[in-house]
Amino acid sequence: MACFERASPALKDILLKLYRAEKPMEIDHQLYEFGSVQYHIQSSASDPHHTYLSISTPLLSQGALLPDKLSHATIEMIKGVGSNAVDIVEPAKEGYHLTLRLNFSKIPRDKDSVKVITQISAMQAVIISYQLKEMLQNVNSQVTLHGMHKPIKLVYHPREPFFVIRQPQKIIAVFPMRFKENSDVIIATAFFQELMDVGSSQEWAKAPPCIWSPIPPPELRGETFEDLSTNGGFVSFDIYSRHVEGKRLDKTVWSLLNFYAYVKSHVKCTRGFIQRRMRKRLESLVKVLQKASSEEEEEEEQFGKDQDAGCNYMRKLVSLSKSKILKRRSYGVLSRKIKRIRFRIKIHGFGRFRRRWLRFPKFSSSMGYTKLD
């Protein structure tokens, strides 16, 4: 089912729009909801007082085959629920289980109008819950029937059957749980175990006791292998007379019919929550890695700048040393050339003049020196 409310929110909005319209509206709208539920709303300006609502829904049946038509008891029950503004059209539109003719002029223009339209929007829930409600009303029946303890297989969705077992003082509802993904099995198993722990507490003592088991309960012995082959185990609820008294009957029936949808919703939300937490964790780790890599890049850039500066300095030193070496070499070569040029200059007769006139005189000292031993 699309939601856990009895009234379809989308259908309710459309009917309220038609009801509150100042002028007749031309509408031919088809609406689909989860669980193969289909609505067809028709309203014509030529017939402003009537709106036709056709409903197609999988019916709760005892067996593998789903019924094609509503039972007579269900039709009578719908007549009792509907107000003066609702009439059943027979036969129903082709492809649908029920067709209703709505007369909005008979709905009072007060606060009760929303209540009446809400009841009309919940007609699909009334159809699907009638059969199970009839079974639960007989929970305290003392009539002994042949095979009263034999499980009754109820099918709403072909892949989601559940069993109802009548006992002398209670009714046991057993749900075989099947999941496509292994991760869903883990999440659902943890949810079932927590559900048992909460149900056994003092605060929830009035709620139907819940039991989860990985193997089929003894009440399902003798059922087909296809019905007992699961990967999520079996969830059982014990329904006592206090759970079906007065207004509690509707709540109990609706909770049982929506149990599969509730578990799927819980598993889906939990999986989404885990994925969001994992994405956030991954983003935080990526930020840390990016920060570390940026710091490392900055250090490498700084090291590269320092290294480039050192290389430039060494290049300058090398260039300076080369210039000095070249200068020294050029100066040495020049000086040697000058010396060579100077030594090559000769003055004729200068040697004889130096030997004759440029002699140092010899001096003799009057003081004698004695060698000391």
From TrEMBL:
<dbReference type="GO" id="GO:0042995">
    <property type="term" value="C:cell projection"/>
</dbReference>
<keyword id="KW-0966">Cell projection</keyword>
<comment type="subunit">
    <text>Component of the Arp2/3 complex.</text>
</comment>
<dbReference type="InterPro" id="IPR034666">
    <property type="entry name" value="ARPC2/4"/>
</dbReference>
<dbReference type="GO" id="GO:0030041">
    <property type="term" value="P:actin filament polymerization"/>
</dbReference>
<dbReference type="GO" id="GO:0005885">
    <property type="term" value="C:Arp2/3 protein complex"/>
</dbReference>
<keyword id="KW-0009">Actin-binding</keyword>
<comment type="function">
    <text>Functions as actin-binding component of the Arp2/3 complex which is involved in regulation of actin polymerization and together with an activating nucleation-promoting factor (NPF) mediates the formation of branched actin networks. Seems to contact the mother actin filament. Arp2/3 complex plays a critical role in the control of cell morphogenesis via the modulation of cell polarity development.</text>
</comment>
<dbReference type="GO" id="GO:0051015">
    <property type="term" value="F:actin filament binding"/>
</dbReference>
<dbReference type="GO" id="GO:0034314">
    <property type="term" value="P:Arp2/3 complex-mediated actin nucleation"/>
</dbReference>
<dbReference type="Pfam" id="PF04045">
    <property type="entry name" value="P34-Arc"/>
</dbReference>
<protein>
    <recommendedName>
        <fullName>Arp2/3 complex 34 kDa subunit</fullName>
    </recommendedName>
</protein>
<dbReference type="InterPro" id="IPR007188">
    <property type="entry name" value="ARPC2"/>
</dbReference>
<comment type="similarity">
    <text>Belongs to the ARPC2 family.</text>
</comment>
<keyword id="KW-0963">Cytoplasm</keyword>
<keyword id="KW-0206">Cytoskeleton</keyword>
<dbReference type="GO" id="GO:0005200">
    <property type="term" value="F:structural constituent of cytoskeleton"/>
</dbReference>
